Each structure stands twice: as C-alpha cells, then as structure tokens.
Amino acid sequence: MSGESVLALKRRARRINRALAEQYPYAHAELDFRSPFELVVATVLSAQTTDVLVNQITPLLFSRYPDARSMAEAEAAELEAIIKPTGFFRAKTRNLLALCNRLVDEFDGVVPGRLEDLVTLPGVGRKTANVVLGNAFGIPGITVDTHFGRLARRFGWTVSEDPVRIESEVAELFEPKDWTMLSHRVVFHGRRVCHARKPACGACPVANWCPSYGAGETDPARAAKLLKYELAPGQEALLARLLAETHRAAEIRMESQRKQE
User: Fold this and answer.
1) H or E stretch at 252
2) Residue 81 pLDDT more than 50?
3) How far apart are CA 28 and CA 62, in angstroms?
4) Deepest of 67, 133, 174, 245, by most Cβ within 10 A of its Cβ?
5) Which positions in this protein are listed as binding [4Fe-4S] cluster (predicted)?
C-alpha cells in the first residue's frame, strides 16, 4: 500500500470487485438455509469446519428442531449426536442451547434483525451477525472470515489481523450496497484460487491489480491445476451450469456435493 493514495486504493479495490463479479456471477452464501434461524444456527456450526459438512447435517437437525423453541428444549445428548461431525460439538451444543433460550426469552423466539441485538446472542460475533444480516435480512454487511481477512491483506486493502478493523477499513473502500456480495466474491475467490499456502496467481482474474501477485504459482498451466471446486480441471460441466443458471447456483452446488458424497 506504500505510496498509494486513498483514491487510488479505492479505485483499485473497486476494480478487483468488478473483476470478481465477472468471475463469480453465481457467488452466494454457501451455507444452506431457509430462514434467519436456520442461518444463525448453521453459521455457529460452521466454526472450525467446512460449509459442506454443515450442509450435510443441517437437514436432519432442522427436521428435528425447526425453530428456536424446539431447539431450546432439546436434550443436549441428542443435539450433540447430530452435530458431532462438525467438531467441537459439546461447545457448539452449549452455544446453541444458550442461543435458543436467549431467543425465546428475549426475542419471542425470533432472530433479531439488528447487529446490536445479534451480537448479544451466545456464540454470535460480528462475523456471524453480518452473515445473518446480509443474507437473511438484506442488510449490508462485510463478513470477515479467515479467507476474507487473508485476501484483504493480499489485496492491500488492510494490513490488520483484527477482524473488526479489517471490516471497518474495507467498508471505507466500497459502497454499502456492495458489502454483502463483495464478501461472497472474496470468500469464493479465497476458496477456489487465492489459497492460503499456494495461491494460483497464474490463473487469477485480479492478478493485474494485486500487489501480492507472485506469492504463489505464476505459470498459467501449473496454476490452473491448483484451482478448486467448479474451477478445478474436470469440473467444466459444473462451471457451465453455474454460469448458465446463476439464479439456481445454490441448488446446483448442493446437487453436485450430494453426488460426490
């Protein structure tokens, strides 16, 4: 970022966002949900595990406990048995029971749509709150997970390791209306191209505007082999479907994951 003016940084950041929008027109929340309650629970479960794994266990979980009241009354052992594959299941069970009891006692069983209320819920920090606000309520929010933080630093949008500061500094670069989709696009890119250990720089659509270009594999052919999910070699048919039916992207992804189980 040295020598780059605030205006130049903002222009470069927005150019990266436009390039990511072109690359991932199908970007979406990768946790499956049908209500704010399902999303807040799924996000709590997603800590220290993958969205794919969470999506595998939530259908059973929500068929047993479809709302906060029923989950608040659940037996801890039964909850633990269902969510065990996600790891840290005892702590997550305690959080879910406490969260659901708080929802019932303080919010009449309904997930609130305000950041200041959401962050009072057990197991819910700013990251989870912004996920819920942006995706269940349509309220703009920047979700700083490990992928977003890593890429924000690589892009030179911030030098901070603190999620709250990252959120604040990145928010200054973009219009609020772009925050939620920006979060999806950056996370998609982090999972598919800009990996933690070996980013696929030679296959990156934002290489021209990235100050960290060269941190990973720059040879296009070798970089292409590092791509994951629908961008991975052999997944051309899946990518074509996602591009052709962006409005059904979540459904298409779910179908693809079920076939691979």
Assistant:
1) helix 249-260
2) yes
3) 21
4) 133
5) 194, 201, 204, 210
Residue 257: pLDDT over 60: yes
Nearest to 192 by CA among 33, 19, 27, 16: 27
Residues in CB range of 201: below 8 A, 6 or more apart? 207, 210, 213, 214, 215, 216, 217, 218, 223
Binding region for [4Fe-4S] cluster: 194, 201, 204, 210
Please answer whether residues 195 and 26 qualify as being in contact, where contact means their C-beta atoms are separated by less than 8 angstroms: no
The C-alpha R_g of the chain, in whole angstroms, comes to 19
Q: Which residues are annotated as a binding site?
A: 194, 201, 204, 210
The angle, 0 to 180 degrees and rounded to 10, between the axes of the packed helices 51-64 and 36-45 is 130
Q: How many CB atoms lie within 10 A of CB 220?
A: 12
Residues 205-216 pLDDT 10s: 999 999 999 999
At residue 1 the predicted structure's pLDDT band, cuts being 50, 70 and 90, is very low
Token pair listed for 156: 């030179």
Q: What are the boundaries of each domain within the chain?
A: 6-27+143-259, 36-137
Instruction: For residues 195 and 190, give the distance between their C-alpha atoms in angstroms, rounded to a whole number.
Output: 6
The CA distance from 18 to 12, in Å, is 10
Kindly tell me if the per-residue pLDDT of 261 is higher than 70.
Answer: no
Q: Which helix (H) or strand (E) holds 147?
A: helix 146-154
**What CATH number belongs to 6-27+143-259?**
1.10.1670.10
Per-residue pLDDT band at 255 (split at 50, 70, 90): confident
Residues designated as active site: 127, 145
